[in-house]
TrEMBL record:
It comes from the Eukaryota. Monomer. The keyword Hydrolase applies. It comes from Molossus molossus. It holds the Pfam family NDK. Residues 1-119 form the Thioredoxin domain. This is Thioredoxin domain-containing protein 3. Gene3D superfamilies: Glutaredoxin (3.40.30.10), Nucleoside diphosphate kinase-like domain (3.30.70.141).
Length: 558
């Protein structure tokens, strides 16, 4: 532990955006080791850094830091990068980058930049006009699964039995859009409690006629509209899920409660906050480049004060086509061409915000699309507060409707799948807490199995290390009891799960990522509680081996 403490003294730990911004205030040269949460900083270079710090003896102008890419918005383009990255900041400006643990090159770069700083301080040379490196995230993956926030529905209760979870049948129940039922507590084993309702756009598989107060004939629907229901004419029977389960020969996995009184009682017992939760809405928010660069912290403070939760965020440099789509309402204005040039000149910040009645509240908060309109009727809006001289438009964007929010979130944050494993030594209480951590981090548990991993099955998950000497120890750990194997789904799932797990060594995790799962529950490197895929390709290969029936809807992304 003493050695680790010395490393932290050598390299300051930067693990959030505020610390990153503060670090950029350093005078002189700052050498930044950009690392992934799951693997930690590059230890191989620390001896060199300690040597240079001693030999150069320039504590005022030479600084070393480690920066966690997963938790710093600026470092978004470096996430899920297995190769070491070293950035060099001179007086807050990133002037160069070296990929890989190239000690001679890093050594020479540090010496050259420090010698320049010495000459500048002595008046022997003028500070060079460095070209600052811009970090660009070129990720333009296609959109995947939809988000559904429509909750103005009737509900019922469905109890999914533990064997349904273990055998993977749950997904067949959850993905069926033709039911309006609610899953409640199971008393044994691993079970799901779900809130489910009929999609307004889908006609129920079984319906009955109700009285038409106006005595009008039901409107006929065309063939391509045969699944659209007329609410005043048809209503769904509460047993539609039960009938569907029976048709699919999986009714033995699920019990359905259809009495409205009982449904409401179960909701009150098991989901006391359901009424407020059901009003939560997601919306896409976007900070245009100028605002993002100059006043993002002010915007973040307002977002927090207004009760929003930031579910996801990413920096993105918009393409010309994307900028034109987002700025379509200004296309007839004289400044449209300059606006598009500005929107594509640097990174914007896309956010997914969550709050009760979030979409409407965000729209009211930011105000109209132009400063002129805001001056006429909404002087307190963010449009006025963050107005710039460059363009007379709102520097903030919000989705116009829940449908638009759904599409825009899918576009900017396309879902991704990763494989996750909870090892046998995790206690029941620890498993439950890990499930809670997973949910709070915004993951969907798309599929899950609780199985005792044989060598053949373990080989499918750990295929990259089967020839290593320590693999027999891994197999011994996995043979101690059943493991929980899951498919986790969200945007950037692979790197987000790696970040949530923390470094492989629990002791290192406690130092560098104290809130991570391995820091909380890990015992040793082998008994570190959880495992996850290292990259997208490995994730999909492993998922296909373990969940052979699984076919991701967003297959183009993978």
């Amino acid at each position: 532990m003493a050695g680790k403490k010395r490393e932290i003294q050598l390299q300051a730990v930067i693990n959030n955006q505020s610390l990153w911004d503060e670090m950029l205030q350093n005078k002189g040269l700052t050498v930044i080791d950009v690392y992934q949460a799951w693997c930690g900083p590059c230890k191989a270079m620390q001896t060199l850094f300690r040597k240079l710090k001693t030999e150069l003896n320039e504590d005022e102008i030479l600084h070393f830091v480690v920066a966690e890419a997963n938790s710093i918005a600026t470092l978004q383009p470096f996430r899920d990068n297995c190769e070491p990255i070293f950035l060099f900041s001179v007086n807050g400006k990133i002037v160069t980058k070296i990929e890989g643990a190239n000690a001679p090159l890093v050594n020479q770069k540090i010496i050259n930049l420090i010698n320049e700083e010495r000459k500048i301080a002595a008046g022997e040379m003028v500070r060079p006009q460095y070209h600052e490196i811009t970090f660009v995230d070129s990720d333009t993956e296609d959109a995947g699964e939809a988000f559904n926030e429509n909750v103005d529905q009737l509900y019922s209760i469905a109890i999914i039995k533990p064997e349904a979870v273990i055998t993977g049948k749950t997904i067949k129940i959850k993905e069926k859009p033709d039911f309006e039922d609610f899953v409640t507590l199971m008393t044994t084993g691993i079970s799901y409690i779900l809130v489910v309702s009929q999609d307004n756009k889908q006609e129920p598989p079984c319906e009955e006629t109700v009285s038409n107060p106006e005595n009008k004939e039901p409107k006929e629907t065309s063939e391509d509209q045969h699944e659209m229901a007329t609410p005043t004419v048809m209503r769904k029977k509460w047993d539609s899920l039960q009938e569907y389960l029976e048709r699919q020969n999986i009714s033995q996995f699920c019990d359905v409660e259809e009495n409205t009184t009982n449904v409401n009682k179960f909701i009150d017992i098991f989901f006391p906050d359901f009424k407020s939760i059901s009003k939560l809405e997601k919306t896409l928010a976007l900070l245009r480049p100028d605002l993002f660069q100059e006043k993002k912290e002010d915007v973040f403070n307002i977002i927090q004060d207004e009760g929003f939760k930031i579910l996801m965020q990413r920096e993105i440099v918009l393409s010309e086509e994307e900028a034109k789509t987002l700025c379509k309402e200004y296309e007839n204005e004289d400044y449209f061409g300059n606006l598009i040039e500005n929107m594509t000149s640097g990174p914007s910040l896309a956010l997914v915000l969550l709050r009760e009645n979030g979409l409407q509240h965000w729209k009211e908060l930011i105000g109209p699309s132009t400063v002129e309109e805001a001056k006429e009727r909404l002087l307190e809006s963010l449009c006025i507060q963050f107005a710039t001289k460059s363009f007379p438009i709102n520097q903030l964007y919000g989705s116009d409707s829940l449908e638009a929010a759904e599409m825009e979130i899918q576009y900017f944050f396309p879902p991704q799948n990763t494989l996750a494993l909870i090892k046998p030594h995790a206690t029941h209480e620890q498993r439950e807490e890990i499930f809670s951590i997973i949910k709070e981090a915004g993951f969907d548990i798309t599929q899950m199995k609780e199985i005792l991993l044989t060598k053949e099955q373990a080989d499918k998950i750990y295929f990259k290390i089967t020839n290593k000497d320590f693999y027999k120890d891994v197999l011994e750990i996995l043979s101690e009891g059943p493991s929980v194997v899951m498919i986790l789904t969200k945007w950037n799932a692979v790197s987000e799960w790696r970040r949530l797990m923390g470094p492989t060594d629990p002791e290192e995790a406690k130092l560098l990522s104290p809130d991570s799962i391995r820091a909380k529950f890990g015992i040793t490197v082998l008994k570190n509680c959880v495992h996850g895929s290292s990259n997208i390709q490995e994730a999909m290969e492993t998922i296909n081996r373990i969940f052979e029936e699984f076919v991701p809807e967003n297959s183009e992304e993978h």
